[in-house]
Amino acid sequence: MPARVDHDARRREIAEALWRVLARDGFGGLSLRTVAAEMGATTGLVTHYFGSRAELIDHALELLHARTDASLGEADVPLGRASLRTRLLAVLPTTGEAAELSRIWVGFWGLAIVDAGLSAREAARYERWRAWLRPHVAAGWPEADVETSVDLLTSSTHGLVVQALFDPDRFGPERLEALVDAQLARLGG
Amino acid sequence: MPARVDHDARRREIAEALWRVLARDGFGGLSLRTVAAEMGATTGLVTHYFGSRAELIDHALELLHARTDASLGEADVPLGRASLRTRLLAVLPTTGEAAELSRIWVGFWGLAIVDAGLSAREAARYERWRAWLRPHVAAGWPEADVETSVDLLTSSTHGLVVQALFDPDRFGPERLEALVDAQLARLGG
Prior knowledge:
Chains A, B: One of its GO terms (molecular function) is transcription cis-regulatory region binding. Chains A, B: It holds the Pfam family TetR_C_6. Chains A, B: This is AcrR family transcriptional regulator. Chains A, B: It comes from Nocardioides soli. Chains A, B: InterPro entries: BetI_C, Homeodomain-like_sf, HTH-type_TetR-like_transc_reg, HTH_TetR, Tet_transcr_reg_TetR-rel_C_sf. Two copies of one chain form a homodimer. Chain A has helices spanning about 5-25, 30-40, 45-50, 55-70, 80-90, 95-110, 115-140, 145-165, 175-185. Chain A is about 75% helix and about 0% strand. In chain A, helix 8 runs antiparallel to helix 9 (about 175-185). Chain A has two domains: about 1-65, Orthogonal Bundle (Arc Repressor Mutant, subunit A), CATH 1.10.10.60; about 75-189, Orthogonal Bundle (Tetracycline Repressor, domain 2), CATH 1.10.357. The first copy, chain A, is elongated. Chain A has about 190 residues and is mostly helical. At the A-B interface, helix 6, helix 7, helix 8 and helix 9 of A face helix 6, helix 7, helix 8 and helix 9 of B.
């Protein structure tokens, strides 16, 4: 009798291959065929687990969200400046792993921006991010306009991610940290 | 005798179709076949002018840069706060046309982020953008740290573009203008 296939292990193996394709070639390079090639398997094996490119993209997003949430650390931390600073720094590409995650995010934006359903999911994710920031801003900067501060912190952090990915020589870890501190220092203004 | 083909007119026609494909489907949807279909022409007609998808992408970038530069207005304006504010507002998706241009840029990032050559070109473009901002910051905010201010203005403006594209209801033209003014008000801090 043939050995019983461990379906969970196989799905994990596909997920790892999918992630490597995303990190190297972005969403533009993601297909049933390229994931299969990355595993050295047949396309048929991948379609046994993911019936279409759309299902593969759904799974890629699940992985992207799970890995991003893990990279952000605990959500339930003391309110205020220190926790907020830690969270913003966690978003920036200060390590190779964080840069890989950010590259996949920027690639996802390119996909989502022309897809109404994915755009709506991304808008909802932004709102959850702002909901996390609000009480930290209110606690850390009692004099600040919370919504304005939350929008500017979100903008400057994400815009900095993009600049840093394209120009890592200018935006090394120390420079990124200094820029986050400069933006935080301007929060009460 | 057949009518002489106007090659310049034909190239312009292809460029217009290419732009419509980009605006609707992003770089992921751009190919010789999709541009031909958009024109109601054969793929052979398009390949007569653009030999490969790479050539089509090169031309898309030329158009993207030319239309972006045109949207930014005159480069040679009086130094200082008013000119800087005008330039930042021109980047934001406050009109349908500006939103279309921004959507194509965000899609381009997704392509460039996994392509070393395109990443280097984007880094160089960012440096030209900073070179434009520097004397305006120095003239308008003599007490400010120019490099920090230039990096934060660039980050917050581009990050705001992304948020606004995904959530135009939250980020209408008035809100975008207020956020640019809030960031500018914090520049000297």
